[in-house]
């Protein structure tokens, strides 16, 4: 049988092309899903026909759990009678009427259990019936004990033991003949029995401490009995938690989480402090009421667990047993075929997709960036390097082939776009640089002509107009130099020999802004700046000053400060304008440090920051924007020690 199955599987795996639709992913997945689905439907049909076989076993289990719950009802009543009787014998005469009423409820529950045994004895295991009838013997002995209690001759400790032995006999009888076929049902019955022992421990504690609190203190040996009962409760609850499900364990936690249960913990703490025989000031009635609430809650949990076990038994009654061997064989066949088809189909999809994923990672991580870098760094006259052919991914599905082709098209298109962008960027940069150099040359000639006219003009009004024209041309020259900076070109040198005073550099920068009258050099310590960097530092300061003027009120001055800071020299351009948001301030500082957005993606209104950042990089200076105290923004410029030296009185001449 096994050989035929393996032969069939080999024929399926070796000849996939013969299956209709195998050349497409959709067809392969349809085959993978259709075959196990049909086999599962066959299995379900066989299972439905075999469900009725376990009906009698399920009925026996349900009957057993029903009798067990009825026995638990009798246990509850005996426990209640035990606790009330113990309090009465300890001297609490207020319990006498309660004891009499409780005896009637106990006898009624005993009669109900006997009636149930007579009705369900045919559906119960013989061991369970025998054990329950044997447990009726201690119940019958309670009649004599009650007579001694009424006559006042009963000993409290002996009476408590008699009732406890009766309860123990009933609980032990419940475990006799428990079902052991279905694991979940057996585990549920074991959990129910563990909970019954835990409930008995709580009820026994209720009864024993009821007598202790009524007497006002522990007598000899009673405290030891109290600790043993609590230990038995903890052990039984631990066993129940191991066997119970999540919902059953939550119900148990709810029972121990009530207000009455929390008060019980307090009473137990008081009882522990009376271990030396000291007086215990606990009202027996309050202890009895709170403990009875806890015991009743635990019995409710028992009923819930019992109902759950009965439900499991009902479900187990519909399980298949007669043809278990057939089910196992059919299940193994389904599993083998499904696994073989799933593995083959998965490999036919995942292998080419994995290869394409590796290819895409290689394209995105190394090949495409390398190709773009080569294109950008290549000489304009060098022809582009031809792209090497991409390997065809494994797998013959049409969709995989189309995906591979699409990936190659994406790579080719990206490389082509990168080449076009590199050419466009190079052309734009060269055009801007050429335009900037032309403008700078013309403006230098214009400034020279204006200087000549200024020296020849005697009319004050005309001379003032020439000064304004000179100032305008100076600003235009700065814009042309900014264009060269943005294009990455070095502007024609405008340098001075020796050093130039910082104050003169600041005045030169102020002269290149429109509203220079609003700029005040407040406090500038003397220091010299090396001549080769004067033009670029003046340009940098002019950009910062103009930015401060632009975002300040029309009548609000902009202040410039300068001071030495160790080996560096610091300049500050302070405005008290509208200020900047923390997010925008962080973005601007990133641009000034060369870590912000690229120039090609930056908004045009912030190009001045890119100019300042480029100039700061050339100078090795640090530029940072910070909020001005109150309102506005302060631009700090830190010049490195290599650009400065002690102050020298050298005037700045226009280049």
UniProtKB/TrEMBL annotation:
Q: Which UniProt keywords apply?
A: Kinase, Membrane, Phosphoprotein, Transferase, Transmembrane, Transmembrane helix
One GO molecular function term?
protein histidine kinase activity
Parts forming coiled coils = none
Q: Which reaction does it catalyse?
A: ATP + protein L-histidine = ADP + protein N-phospho-L-histidine
Where does the source fall among the domains of life? Answer: Bacteria
Q: E.C. number, please?
A: 2.7.13.3
- Which segments cross the bilayer? 29-49, 327-346
**GO annotations under biological process?**
phosphorelay signal transduction system
The segment(s) forming the Nitrate/nitrite sensing protein domain are: 74-309
Which range is the signal sequence, renumbered to this chain?
Answer: none
Q: Name one GO cellular component term.
A: plasma membrane
Q: Which residues form the Histidine kinase/HSP90-like ATPase domain?
A: 536-640
Q: Please tell me which top-level EC class this enzyme sits in.
A: transferase
Protein name as annotated: histidine kinase
The species this protein belongs to is Streptomyces regalis
């Amino acid at each position: 049988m096994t050989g035929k199955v393996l032969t069939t599987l080999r024929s399926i795996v070796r000849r996939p092309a013969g299956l209709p639709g195998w050349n497409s992913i959709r067809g392969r997945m349809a085959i993978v899903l259709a075959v196990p689905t049909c086999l599962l439907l066959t299995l379900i049909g066989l299972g439905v026909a075999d469900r009725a076989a376990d009906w009698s076993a399920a009925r026996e289990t349900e009957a057993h759990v029903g009798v067990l719950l009825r026995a638990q009802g009798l246990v509850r009543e005996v426990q209640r009678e035990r606790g009330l009787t113990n309090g009465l014998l300890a001297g609490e005469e207020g319990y006498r009427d309660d004891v009499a009423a409780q005896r009637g409820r106990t006898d009624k529950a005993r009669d109900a259990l006997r009636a149930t045994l007579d009705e369900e004895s045919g559906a119960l295991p013989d061991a369970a019936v025998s054990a329950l009838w044997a447990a009726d013997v201690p119940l019958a002995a309670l009649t004599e004990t009650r007579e001694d209690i009424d006559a006042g001759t009963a000993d409290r400790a002996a009476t408590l033991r008699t009732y406890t032995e009766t309860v123990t006999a009933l609980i032990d009888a419940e475990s006799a003949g428990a079902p052991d076929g279905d694991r979940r049902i057996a585990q549920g019955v074991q959990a129910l029995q563990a909970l019954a022992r835990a409930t008995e421990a709580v009820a026994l504690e209720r009864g024993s401490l009821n007598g202790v609190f009524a007497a006002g203190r522990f007598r000899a040996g009673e405290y030891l009995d109290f600790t043993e009962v609590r230990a038995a409760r903890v052990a039984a609850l631990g066993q129940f938690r191991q066997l119970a499900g999540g919902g059953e364990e939550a119900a148990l936690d709810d029972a121990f989480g009530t207000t009455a249960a929390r008060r019980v913990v307090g009473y137990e703490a008081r009882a522990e402090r009376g271990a030396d025989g000291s007086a215990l000031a606990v009202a027996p009635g309050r202890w009895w009421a709170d403990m009875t609430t806890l015991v009743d809650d635990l019995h409710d949990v028992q009923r819930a667990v019992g109902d759950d076990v009965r439900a499991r038994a009902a479900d187990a009654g519909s399980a298949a047993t007669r043809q278990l061997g057939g089910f196992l064989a059919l299940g193994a066949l389904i599993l083998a075929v499904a696994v073989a088809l799933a593995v083959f189909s998965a490999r036919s999809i995942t292998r080419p997709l994995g290869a394409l994923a590796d290819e895409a990672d290689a394209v995105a991580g190394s090949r495409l960036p390398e190709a773009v870098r080569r294109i950008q760094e290549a000489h304009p006259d060098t022809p582009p390097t031809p792209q090497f052919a991409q390997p065809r991914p494994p797998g013959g599905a049409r969709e995989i082939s189309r995906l591979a082709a699409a990936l190659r098209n994406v790579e080719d298109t990206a490389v082509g776009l990168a080449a076009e962008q590199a050419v466009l960027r190079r052309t734009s940069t060269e055009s801007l640089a050429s335009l900037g150099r032309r403008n700078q040359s013309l403006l230098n000639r214009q400034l020279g002509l204006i200087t000549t006219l200024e020296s020849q003009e005697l009319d004050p009004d005309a001379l003032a107009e020439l000064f304004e024209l000179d100032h305008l041309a100076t600003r235009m020259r700065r814009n042309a130099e900014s264009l060269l900076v943005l294009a990455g070109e070095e502007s024609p040198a405008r340098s001075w020999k020796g050093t130039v005073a910082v104050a003169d550099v600041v005045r030169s920068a102020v002269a290149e802004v429109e509203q220079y009258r609003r700029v005040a050099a407040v406090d500038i310590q003397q220091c010299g700046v090396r001549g080769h960097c004067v033009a670029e530092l003046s340009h940098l300061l002019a950009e910062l000053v103009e930015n401060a003027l632009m975002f300040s009120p029309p009548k609000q001055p902009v202040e410039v400060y300068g001071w030495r800071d160790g080996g560096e020299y610091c300049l500050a351009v302070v405005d008290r304008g509208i200020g900047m948001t923390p997010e925008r301030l962080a973005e601007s500082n990133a641009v000034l440090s060369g870590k912000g957005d690229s120039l090609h993606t930056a908004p045009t209104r912030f190009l001045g920051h890119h100019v300042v950042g480029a100039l700061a990089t050339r100078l090795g200076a640090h530029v940072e924007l910070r909020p001005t105290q109150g309102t506005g923004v302060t631009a700090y410029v830190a010049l490195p020690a290599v650009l400065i030296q002690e102050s020298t009185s050298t005037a700045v001449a226009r280049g």
